[in-house]
Design a protein that fits this description.
Elements: E1 5-6, E2 12-13, E3 20-21, E4 25-27, H1 32-44, E5 49-51, E6 67-69, E7 77-81, E8 86-90, H2 95-104, E9 107-108, H3 120-125, E10 142-148, E11 154-158, H4 163-169, E12 178-185, E13 187-188, E14 191-200, H5 201-206, H6 208-214, E15 217-222, E16 228-237, H7 246-270, H8 275-285, E17 289-293, H9 295-299, E18 307-315, H10 319-333, E19 341-346, E20 361-369, H11 375-387, E21 391-392, H12 402-408, H13 412-422, H14 431-437
Parallel strand pairs: 4-6, 5-6
Antiparallel strand pairs: 1-2, 2-3, 7-8, 8-12, 9-13, 10-11, 10-12, 14-16, 14-17, 15-16, 15-19, 18-20, 18-21, 19-20
Length: about 450
């Protein structure tokens, strides 16, 4: 079973467990024609339509009481074009299957996020990203896509074909239609050397611009209640491959990052007063290590400890100030935060609703263990992020609405105008889409 839980009575739940819905019906089309027919039938029956991948969003972006389209039968690689170095995949293909299939073909995406459970269409529609000095989100690597629009017709778009749709639909929030296939740019498989090492919080902030400039992919985790971070630098390597040994990999990735971490989260949830002490131990548990492997084995890691997350993109130049404010807030708040804060970057891109649209960005992600009250922490963090014109990740917890987005996205009106054209009757609307795009 996928990580999307389908509970009793046809109730759908997301991965984080904080969103549920009861659709009137669920459809798993086996072809694009079946999907288009399902959209037309929903329209005739007066039902709204939403497609859902593996439910990795923490917002209700995919929730509906209408028709829920499950794309698990629309998977696999349609074609590989070695002349143009592109691969076309069905929308329901999980990223982990795409990554493994590309590696077997001697190919890879340029950059990716740190989780690969999601479907390609779910990940790109919400703006999923990793970290990169010059390489951007997964959606920024899209060269073409195909979507079923509200009238049941199939629209293909790229920089040459329907370019105004292409500018929006790469991160379309499910509001423009149901994506059925995506064409990604790929490159020959390469090696990355990862260097992970603890570093004091103050040093990371003091040297942030240099760490960013000297590494192709730089990120770090700060452990609240401590002055410690764990940094990760990924850079291309001539080789040879030197993967993490199986025992060391199990110990660090499964035992420390998932097993012991899970127990620490349980203890922290039960006895919040223990959190700062646990944080100090956690921040010291991960020692420095260096390894070299193919990209998806370096970029991604298993995430078995369930959490709820908020993430904002701020202008990259505002990162240090924003983080200092976040740390000061946590230090004086009496909050007990048991999950590290994750910091990544992305270059500006040209996708209308990309969190990095038109500006070099830094991402700050705050997490809370599933089942722990997160509202006070997230509300205080969000106040800091929005003061810096932050843009929230479309698939993570936030309270912003269309009025706010019209201020922080210069091309917001282009997106809503396109939606008026493609979906005038709001077939693809739900409460979340209404809030973020306006009625």
């Amino acid at each position: 079973m996928s990580s999307t839980a389908s509970g009793k009575n046809g109730t759908w739940r997301n991965w984080g467990g904080n969103v549920s819905a009861r659709p009137a019906r669920q459809v798993a089309p086996a072809s694009v024609e079946e999907l288009a027919a399902a959209v037309r039938r929903a329209r005739e029956d007066g039902l709204k339509v939403k497609a859902v991948g593996t439910g990795h969003s923490f917002t209700s972006i995919a929730a509906t009481d209408g028709v829920l389209i499950r794309p698990q039968l629309l998977t696999g690689i349609r074609s590989i074009d070695r002349d143009s170095m592109t691969v076309t995949v069905e929308a329901g293909t999980p990223l982990k299957r795409l990554n493994a299939a590309l590696a077997r073909e001697g190919l890879s995406l340029t950059n990716m996020g740190d989780i690969m459970e999601q479907t390609v269409s779910g990940a790109t529609s919400t703006g999923t990203h990793g970290t990169g000095r010059a390489s951007a989100s997964i959606a920024a690597q899209i060269k073409g896509l195909e979507l079923v629009t509200a009238d049941g017709s199939l629209l293909t778009c790229s920089e040459k074909e329907n370019p105004e749709v292409f500018a929006a639909a790469r991160i379309g929030l499910g509001a423009l239609g149901v994506v059925t296939a995506i064409t990604f740019a790929v490159e020959p498989l390469f090696l990355l050397t990862a260097r992970e090492e603890p570093m004091p919080f103050e040093r990371v902030l003091a040297e942030f611009d240099q760490l960013w400039a000297e590494n192709e992919h730089f990120e770090f985790y700060w452990f609240p209640h401590t002055g410690s971070t764990n940094t990760k630098r990924n850079n291309r390597s001539a080789g040879p491959a030197q993967p993490v040994g199986q025992l060391a990999g199990w110990f660090e990735d499964e035992f420390l990052s998932n097993g012991v971490f899970q127990v620490a989260q349980w203890v922290g949830r039960a006895v919040p007063a223990t959190v700062p002490a646990i944080a100090r131990v956690s921040s010291r548990a991960l020692s420095a290590r260096t390894y070299t492997d193919i990209p998806y084995k370096v970029f991604t890691s298993p995430r078995r400890v369930r959490f709820v997350e908020m993430e904002y993109a701020v202008p990259r130049a505002a990162l240090v100030a924003t983080l200092r404010e976040l740390k000061a807030m946590v230090d004086r708040s009496g909050l007990r935060v048991s999950f590290p804060v994750e910091v990544r970057t992305a270059p500006a891109d040209d996708i209308i609703l990309s969190t990095a649209s038109g500006r070099d960005s830094a991402y700050i992600a705050v997490h809370m263990f599933r089942g722990t009250p997160y509202q006070a922490y997230f509300t205080a963090a969000e106040r800091i992020f929005t003061a810096h014109e932050g843009r929230p990740h479309w698939g993570k917890v936030h309270t912003r609405d269309a009025e706010y987005f019209a201020r922080v996205y210069p091309r917001f009106g282009e997106f809503t105008a396109l939606r008026d054209r493609l979906d005038p009757d709001r077939l693809f609307q739900n409460d979340y889409v209404r809030r973020v795009l306006g009625a």
